[in-house]
Amino acid sequence: MTKLELAAWGLVIALLGAEGGLAVVRPWDHHVALSLSGSQTSSLIPANGSPTPGATRLVTPSAGAKCPDVVVRRVEQLHTIPRSAWVHASDGVNVRDAPSSSATRLTTLPTGTQLNLQAEQTNPDNSTWYRIRLSDGRDGWLSGRYTTNYPISLASTDSLRIWLPVGYQFQSVAPGKAEAHYKNGPLTLLYLETGARDQAPTETTVPAGLPGRSTWTPRSTEQALVGDLPATDHVFGIRLAGSGCPALVHEVMITTTTRYYDLIFRLDEPSSSVVAQLLDSATVQ
Q1: Over its length of 285 residues, how does the chain's per-residue pLDDT go in tens digits?
Q2: In degrees to the nearest 10, what's the CA dihedral of 81, 86, 92, 93?
Q3: Which domains does the chain have, with CATH numbers?
Q4: Which residues does residue 180 pair with via DSSP β-bridges, in sequence order?
Q5: pTM here?
């Protein structure tokens, strides 16, 4: 990566980090991290003083569906106000006294915090902000960029922490390899391979359950953040062996000074947008 590319990524990360909790420590400077005073505030209540969950939609295969194995199971909140949301940014999210990144910061809420959204505002720059009420009675605003509309829970291995839709947890399958399954069943959302950087393969082994790489059809290549680390998300179209069901693969390779990480998501096309949110919640160890 050239110095120009690093500088560009630094600008992107700095802009995103303005609302995403802790500031990023970049290789060419040491940005002072934001204070996390009050960051454990996770008891959020609506204006009337009692929780009012919104209507939900269960995203799951319909009865008799031909291709159930690639649907990402989750319970989505319908886009109404009030409704619930969850913080997914790996460094948490800043709550401010007005819907602007330049407004005074009231507190920082940690990853996984459940919110009760009381109002929504779209600014001229097309950014979306939500109003919430903190447990101390103050109203505040946070960027919708760092929230999901479905419950998430922490899934971790000895090398990766990531917030996945509730019900998914990792199972170790071999040294340096793990898979995130739904409720310990056969449905795999995420394959993880990691090892020492000097042992990183040119291409990682395709996990069982996926067709060979020669059959993957390139769809797009997008820049992504894995927590605070810049990465590239390579998207492919595939067809599952046996059923012939169409699916998408998102493959993300990350390299640190000591280790490599290869993350492969397998999911249905309507669920593709959740990958960026899940990656944003991740931290590597």
Answers
A1: 443 444 444 444 444 455 665 433 322 212 222 222 222 333 344 433 334 455 677 676 544 456 766 889 999 988 899 999 999 999 999 999 999 999 999 999 999 999 999 999 999 999 999 999 999 999 999 999 999 999 999 999 999 999 999 999 999 999 999 999 999 788 789 999 999 999 999 888 899 889 999 999 999 999 888 988 889 999 999 998 777 889 999 999 999 999 999 999 999 888 888 999 999 999 998
A2: -10
A3: 56-148 (2.30.30.40), 152-284 (3.40.1000.10)
A4: 170, 190
A5: 0.79
Fill in the amino acid letter for 202. Answer: T
Residue with tokens 């919110």: 115
DSSP string, the chain: --HHHHHHHHHHHHHHHTTSSSPP--TT--PPPPP-TTTT------TTSS-----EEEE-PPTT-S-GGG---EEEEPS-SSEEEEE--TT-EEEESSSSTTSPEEEEEPTT-EEEE-EEEE-TTS-EEEEEE-TTS-EEEEEGGGEESS-EEEEE-SSEEEEEETTEEEEEEETTEEEEEETTSS-EEEEEEEEEGGG--SSPPPPTTS--GGGPEEEEEEEEEETTEEEEEEEEEEE-TTT--EEEEEEEEEE-SSEEEEEEEEE-GGGTTHHHHHHHT-EE-
Token pair of 175, please?
A: 């040294």
